[in-house]
Structure formats: C-alpha cells, structure tokens
Design goal:
Number of domains: 4
CATH superfamily of the largest domain: ATP-grasp fold, B domain
Strand content: 25-35%
Bound molecules: adenosine-5'-diphosphate, magnesium ion
C-alpha cells in the first residue's frame, strides 16, 4: 500500500511514523530531513499532488496543514477518484473563516464567548469604543498562519490590532472581516476528534505551549511543546466535551451541507463556567500530534480508513502513561533566525520527529524556525518530562533554544 503525507513539519513526520507498517510505502510532499521518500511538491501545489498520486497509484493521501484543505485539495482528489483523508473545502471553512465559525457555534449552541463581526475599520472602531470591558480579543477572520489573533488588555491595544489588520492589511484579504470577542479567562487545552461525518472518536486531550518562553511569556509561536493526556481535562470532561461540543459541531456541519470527514480540533479555554471553544481547526495539531500519536495503540490507518469508509471502530486503545514533546527551535524564532546550522544527534532511545531540517550529503542542517521535536514517554507525566529533556541533552546545534517547562502545568494537577 502506498501512502502520501502532505506537509513537511513535525506533525507530518509523526503521522508517517504512526502509519508505518509492513507492506506500507510512505511518501512525503515535501517532507523534511527526518523523512524518507520526499517528493519536491509543496502543499500549495494541489494539481501536482493529485497528478503525482494518480501517476504513482497512491492508495491514500493524508493532509497535514490547513491551507491546502481550505483551498480544496480534498475536493480535487475526490473528483479524480483518489482516496484522501481530510475535510472538503466547505467543511474546512470552520477553520478558514473565524466569522463563519462563530456564527455556526452560536446557531448550534456550542459554548463560546460573546462576539461581534465587523467588516470595516470604522465599524470595528465603534465596536471597540463601546465594548463593555477593557479587555477583548481581536481576530482576523481568515487564515493568518496562527498570527491573526490579538489578545488585547485595553481598548487602546485593541484599536492598534484593528489598525494592523484592517488598515495596514498585515494578513491581506484574511483581514477584510474581523471578529471581536469577549476575553475568556482560564487554562487552554485541546481535544481532537477523528470524524466520519456524524460518527467520531476523540483522541487524548492535550496541551500546547504557544508562547516562546518559559512561564508562557514572549511572542506567540507555532507551538513550543505539548503533552498528553492533559489532566486538566478529566474523563468526565471528555464525555461532556463530546456531547456539548463535538457532537453538535459535527451534526451541525452535516445540517449545513458541510459534512466533516477528517480531524476536528477543538481549541478550548477551560473557564470556571466550563470549557468554551476558542476555535476549531480542521486537521491534526502541531505539536500536539507528536505527543498524542506515540501513545496510540490502535493502528492509525484503521482509524483513518474507518473515517473515510464511515465505519470507525468502537473505541481507540491507548498506552497507559504520558508523552511530552519538546520543540527545539532556532534562536530568534518566531522572529528572524538563521538557517543551515549543522545538527548533531547522539544515540538516544526516545522518539525524535523532525520539522525544519534538511539533509545535505551526510550532514543534517537546520532549515526552519522549529527544528526538532523530542518526545519522551513515561508512566507518569513527570517521568515523561524527564525522558524528553534527557533526549534534548543528546541534540546539539548552534543557537538551539527550547522551553524548559513543557508539562509543568499538568504536573500541578498531580
Ligand atoms: N476569547 C478569547 N479569550 C482569551 N484568549 C483568547 C480568546 N481567543 C483566543 N485567545 C488566545 O489567542 C490564541 C489564538 O487564538 P485562536 O482563536 O486559537 O486563533 P489562531 O490559532 O488562529 O491564531 C489562543 O490560543 C488563546 O491563547
Ligand atoms: Mg489556535
């Protein structure tokens, strides 16, 4: 069987690792220095991906990032009779348009903050001036590579954010519509579901670490580490989230004619009134996936094929214990950073997923902001954390930086 994985980050390396097995040949487009069978096609080149799949007789394509989903990669593959795992373009709108997503959540009674949608700077300015509270969150509605949301502590900050989005047009047309939201207080966690439409199975709850530095300080990044399962979300909370968030969202999407087949990711704020949805994503999270998949006992392929064919298994089997993923980044990230630094990895018995790496002859070089993902597993969260940081000590490159507190929030829950 031939499987194509679209994308080149840590998430895609982890997907390939989890899908590997006897009789399975795995290709990556474009992959990275840690993956084999790399095809020089980027996720944006949808026609080339489809042509490659036809030519190579790929049996299944799995899409990592959101952009090609929002651009209709699944619709294009299905039109050509190719098997692919991910939501259609119109189902992907739940991530690609925050305005659509908020209206949808309101319509289907999914717990979310109060919000308003504006389509001009003047309208937004008035909305901010009349906002009940000083704090609020200002979001470009369209895709903005995770940089379009501004958590503002004052109306002045909110106005500046609105100006960046709507006047300076930092995100181009993704900022034509802006969502202004009530500021929610609490702790964040995420939960992913594999869905065949209305039927779904949730994966272990996890927690990402978005900020660059320890103690959740510094600028937002693509994610500096994650761990699973996240003890903030207890078993009974998972059930509650399934019934009050996942099920209404998936059946709502069916009712809207946007049946969702793929991974629905709910980014949650756990408030003192319970979990509320910050956003939905339409794909596996990066780096959450790197912490979740190493605990999966069920064959990922059976889940993906089950979702595509509308017959998911009864349940998912997980290993006992925890996994912690620490992201090693290039100094300067998420701002400017240098590439091309040589990476040395000493022998170690844990899991390492590559992200911004490339091979040049015998050498492994840095080629991105997030470079490697080091995953440790353990019976307890503490053991898993220790294992991951033991792995970190086996890796060296110029300017390597990472957070030292991945998992600490979970340790507080015992
Ligand atoms: N209503 C909100 N209240 C408080 N914080 C928020 C709110 N919405 C978003 N955030 C913060 O901003 C981050 C990014 O927002 P999110 O909606 O996930 O958009 P994106 O990931 O597309 O940038 C969240 O992870 C969270 O930390
Ligand atoms: Mg987010």
């Amino acid at each position: 069987m031939k499987i194509l994985i679209v994308g080149g980050g840590g998430r895609e390396h982890a997907l390939g690792w989890a899908l590997a097995g006897e009789g399975r040949e795995i290709f990556f487009a474009p992959g990275n220095g840690g993956t084999g069978n790399n095809i020089p096609i980027t996720p944006a080149e949808i026609d080339k991906l489809a042509e490659f799949s036809q030519r190579e007789k790929i049996d299944l394509t799995v899409v990592g990032p959101e952009a090609p989903l929002a651009e209709g990669v699944v619709d294009e593959f299905e039109k050509r009779g190719l098997k692919i795992f991910g939501p259609s373009k119109n189902a992907s709108e739940i991530e690609a348009s925050k305005a659509f997503a908020r209206e949808f959540m309101k319509k289907y009674g999914i717990p979310s903050p109060h919000f308003e949608i504006v389509t001009s700077f003047e309208e937004g300015k008035k909305m901010i001036e009349n906002w009940k509270e000083e704090r609020m969150v200002v979001k470009a509605s369209g895709l903005a590579a995770g940089k379009g949301s501004y958590v503002c502590m004052s109306k002045k900050e909110a106005l500046k954010a609105l100006e960046e989005i709507m006047v300076e047009r930092r995100f181009g047309s993704s900022g034509d519509t802006v969502v202004i939201e009530e500021y929610l207080e609490g702790e964040e966690a995420s939960i992913l579901a594999i869905s065949s439409g209305e039927q779904f199975l949730t994966l272990l709850p996890s927690q990402d670490h978005k900020r660059a530095y320890d103690g959740d300080r510094g600028p937002n990044t693509g994610g500096m580490g994650a761990y699973a399962p996240c003890p903030l979300i207890k078993r009974e909370d998972v059930w509650w989230i399934e019934e009050h968030i996942m099920r209404p969202a998936l059946s709502g999407l069916v009712q809207e004619g946007r049946e969702f087949r793929g991974v629905l990711y709910a980014g949650l704020m756990v408030t003192d009134k319970g979990p509320m949805v910050l956003e939905f994503n339409v794909r596996f999270g990066d780096p959450e996936t790197q912490a979740i998949l190493p605990l999966l006992k069920t064959d990922l392929l059976s889940l993906i094929e089950g979702a595509i064919e509308g017959k998911l298994p009864e349940r998912i089997e997980w290993e006992e214990g925890y996994a912690v993923c620490v992201v090693l980044a290039s100094s300067g990230y998420p701002g400017k950073y240098e590439k091309g630094k040589e990476i040395k990895i000493e022998e170690w018995d844990g899991i390492i997923f590559h992200a911004g790496t490339k091979r040049e002859g015998e050498k492994l070089l840095t080629s991105g902001g997030r470079v490697l993902n080091v995953v440790g597993k353990g019976k307890t969260l503490k053991e898993a954390k220790e294992k991951a940081y033991e792995g970190v000590r086996h890796i060296h490159f110029d300017g390597m930086f990472y957070r030292k507190d991945i998992g600490d929030k979970g340790l507080r829950y015992g």
